[in-house]
Automatic annotation (TrEMBL):
Name of protein: DUF1294 domain-containing protein
Family matches, as SUPFAM superfamilies: Nucleic acid-binding proteins (SSF50249)
GO MF, one example: mRNA 3'-UTR binding
One of the record's GO cellular component terms: cytosol
Domain CSD: from-to ranges: 2-67
Native source species: Arenimonas terrae
Length: 209
């Protein structure tokens, strides 16, 4: 027997929430793994249809979940889904590194700028990936403020790649708002450092270049 209900109290970081049935009764636990393969991530208010399964303690778990109007489809390779989504943000990050390389080759940017962006991006990428893994295993998470500070310092290109390849922090609107603010703030700060000549002085002092 299938039921219809609405998603509530969805925790994007942990991948679970609840469904409140339209016809009344007890709400059921919802886990991201119970959705049809290839389905998008749910948000509060989504209408779904589902079946009920009891866990070992007799609690209701929603299984075989489909969004309202979603057809029943055979599982598809996840690689096909992921091959479409990562490209925009990855392209933005790689395009930015391309601009850094061109600017350095034309002596517009000191060597320190691409070196700093590369190292900080690698660090940021690892932090996002590890935070995603921690979320999946219920381990201690990296504070969002730490991720934002790393992005502000210049790790945002690596964050762009990590967000898409690991599907992490891309849905949470509040996080994305602060993230894009850190990107703009970082670019403004680097523009000032380059325009004022400070970046070249630092590059000469630290790298001799």
């Amino acid at each position: 027997m299938r039921f219809a209900g609405r998603i509530s109290d969805w925790n994007e970081a942990k991948g679970y929430g609840f469904v409140v049935p339209h016809d009344g009764g007890d709400r059921a636990f919802v886990h991201i793994k119970a959705f049809q393969p290839g389905a998008r991530r749910p948000v509060d208010g989504d209408l779904i249809s589902y079946a009920i399964s009891k866990d070992g303690r007799g609690r209701n778990n929603a299984v075989d979940i489909r969004f309202a109007g979603q057809r029943i489809e055979a599982p598809r390779p996840r690689t096909a889904e992921r091959s479409r989504r990562p490209l925009p943000r990855i392209a933005m990050a790689l395009g930015f590194f391309g601009l850094l390389g061109a600017g350095t080759a034309l002596s517009v940017l000191p060597v320190l700028v691409p070196v700093a962006y590369t190292l900080l991006s690698l660090a940021s990428f690892l932090m996002y990936v590890l935070d995603k893994a921690a979320a999946g295993h219920g381990a201690q998470r990296t504070p969002e403020s730490t991720l934002h500070l790393m992005d502000l310092a210049g790790g945002w290109p690596g964050a762009l790649i990590a967000q898409q390849t690991s599907r992490h922090k891309t849905v949470k609107t509040s996080f994305q708002s602060v993230f894009w603010f850190t990107v703009v703030a970082n670019l403004a700060a680097v523009f000032w450092l380059v325009h004022s000549g400070t970046a070249r002085l630092l590059s000469t002092a630290w790298l001799g270049m």
